[in-house]
């Protein structure tokens, strides 16, 4: 598992492009990995034959764990692919085996579903006392598969946590490999632990009795209630269980952490987009013909945000150790929807150097590459301020969650034609029809106060309403 960024400690294999026995070429895409930073295709490091896949699709493992074996020798090409057990044993000297996974009790990771919003850190929820963890007998090989070699760390953990003998699980993976889905299916059917420990009273316990004595009417070994294995996954026979994808699980983790970290405060401002709308109507067709895509409201708003951040730099910042870290490069993250499959925030770096047309091009570029999974780690790193744009769907107010470690995020909501009071050249007032919309900012009250944000939003509204956007274009 490669190191995809300094803070990345693990990754999830989302897809293998090759199967065991396939010939692979150096730098040919071998698998796709998803981390908490980015989804990436990883190329093969060598030429040869893929003789073993050790980590299944959907499994999450630490950086440095061996994922597969490629045999580049001529003998492997001529002799064909050996049985999987022999391949792993032969390949072991060439690549040091990954350290065994930690015992479940000492593990700091969890692959269980993300907790609900009802159990945020600031709302502790009482839980029943945990029963002693059952001991698990060593998993005996079944159907010729050595499970000590081919079980992924996630599968090992699930088997141990629920006391399930691997020999009782029918594998659906390559070569009969047991996958995470196989174990979860057994758990869903209510499999009982293999060994249930009994509770032996100590001498100091009020339950202690003379050796060999059994309380009248009690069984020789008292049954121990089984500890709950987690929240119920289905409310009824017609419910559908949809497992979280890796990007959905990562998004949930980030959102919960953000809500627990920042003092979220929402402020909303009405924006008159009439000048922007006039430019879009007048030059929109020519822009589309020249650039190949539509001129939307988003590049106008982003350019105005960048200019306003120059005047209000404390919103282009992050919270450090008892300090506010103000960033002088303005790197704007643009939230991109991945066709309802998740959300990612690629970054337009040095946004202060762009004009309107350049901003439109950069936003279009990062959005297209996000949807085709062509982003690099640099494309999603070092953001200093974020914008989310739900406006095309006609939203009214969106209270977005701050993208940590930033201190603010702006939502651009729907724009509609509305009657407004306008001032005529002679100073009198009249009723006109303008394009009006709302922008909503969630900010971290630890970093700035409401008056600072209100002034920022007023400056943003003035830029959008007063700027000669035709010359900008």
Can you describe this structure?
The strands form five sheets. The chain has a six-stranded mixed sheet. Strands 4-3-1-6 form a four-stranded antiparallel sheet, with no helix packed on it. Strand 3 and strand 4 (39-43) form a beta hairpin. The protein has helices at residues 74-79, 84-91, 147-150, 153-161, 180-188, 246-261, 274-291, 298-311, 356-371, 450-466, 469-472; strands spanning 10-16, 23-24, 29-34, 39-43, 48-53, 60-62, 68-71, 264-272, 317-319, 324-326, 332-334, 336-337, 343-344, 347-348, 385-389, 408-423, 429-444. It is an alpha+beta fold and 473 residues long. It is 26% helix and 20% strand.
Protein structure class: alpha+beta
Strand share of the residues? Answer: 15-25%
Described by strand count, sense and barrel closure, the largest sheet is: 6 strands, mixed
What general outline do the C-alpha atoms trace?
A: elongated
- Tally of separate helices: 11
Order of helices and strands: EEEEEEEHHHHHHEHHEEEEEEHEEEHH
Model regions low in confidence, pLDDT < 50 over at least 5 residues: 74-97, 103-149, 191-225
Biggest sheet, strands in spatial order?
Answer: 8-17-16-15-11-14
Helix content: 25-40%
Terminus-to-terminus distance? 46 Å
Q: What's the pLDDT, averaged over the residues?
A: 78
Question: How many β-strands, per DSSP?
Answer: 17
Radius of gyration: 29 Å
Key attributes of the depicted protein:
473 residues, alpha+beta, six-stranded mixed sheet, four-stranded antiparallel sheet, 17 strands, elongated
């Amino acid at each position: 598992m490669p190191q995809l960024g300094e803070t990345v400690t693990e990754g999830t294999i989302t897809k293998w492009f090759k199967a065991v026995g396939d010939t692979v070429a150096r730098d040919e895409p071998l698998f796709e990995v998803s981390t908490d930073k980015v989804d990436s295709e990883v190329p093969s490091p060598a030429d040869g034959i893929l003789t073993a896949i050790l980590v299944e699709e959907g499994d999450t493992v630490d950086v440095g764990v061996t994922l597969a074996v490629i045999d580049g020798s001529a003998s492997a090409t001529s002799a064909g692919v050996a049985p999987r057990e022999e391949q792993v044993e032969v390949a072991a000297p060439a690549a040091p085996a990954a350290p065994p996974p930690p015992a479940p009790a000492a593990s700091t990771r969890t692959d269980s579903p993300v907790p609900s919003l009802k159990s945020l850190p600031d709302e502790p929820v009482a839980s029943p006392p945990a029963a002693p963890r059952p001991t698990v007998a060593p998993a005996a090989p079944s159907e010729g598969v050595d499970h000590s070699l081919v079980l992924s760390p996630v599968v090992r953990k699930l088997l141990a946590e629920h006391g399930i003998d691997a020999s009782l699980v029918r594998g659906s993976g390559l070569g009969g490999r047991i996958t995470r889905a196989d174990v979860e299916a057994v758990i869903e059917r209510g499999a009982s632990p293999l060994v249930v420990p009994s509770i032996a009273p100590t001498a100091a316990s009020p339950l202690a009795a003379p050796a060999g004595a059994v309380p009248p009417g009690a069984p020789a070994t008292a049954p121990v209630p089984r500890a709950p294995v987690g929240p119920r996954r289905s409310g009824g026979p017609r419910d559908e269980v949809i497992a979280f994808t890796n990007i959905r699980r990562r998004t949930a983790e980030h959102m919960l952490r953000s809500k627990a970290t920042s003092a979220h405060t929402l402020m909303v401002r009405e924006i008159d987009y009439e000048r922007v709308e006039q430019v879009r109507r007048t030059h929109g067709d020519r822009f589309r013909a020249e650039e190949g895509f539509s001129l939307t409201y988003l590049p106008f708003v982003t350019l105005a945000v960048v200019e306003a951040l120059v005047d209000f730099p404390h919103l282009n910042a992050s919270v450090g150790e008892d300090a506010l870290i103000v960033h002088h490069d303005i790197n704007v993250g643009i939230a991109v929807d991945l066709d309802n499959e998740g959300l990612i925030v690629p970054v337009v770096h040095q946004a202060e150097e762009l004009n309107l047309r350049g901003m439109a091009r950069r936003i279009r570029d990062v959005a297209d590459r996000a949807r085709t999974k062509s982003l690099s780690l640099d494309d999603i790193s070092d953001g200093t301020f974020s914008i989310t744009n739900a406006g095309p769907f006609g939203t009214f107010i969106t209270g977005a969650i701050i993208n940590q470690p930033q201190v603010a995020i702006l939502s651009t909501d729907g724009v509609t034609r509305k009657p407004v009071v306008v001032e005529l050249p002679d100073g009198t007032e009249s009723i006109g029809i303008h394009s009006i919309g709302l922008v909503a900012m969630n900010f971290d009250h630890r970093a700035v106060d409401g008056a600072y944000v209100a002034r920022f939003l007023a400056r943003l509204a003035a830029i959008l309403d007063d700027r000669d956007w035709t010359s900008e274009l």
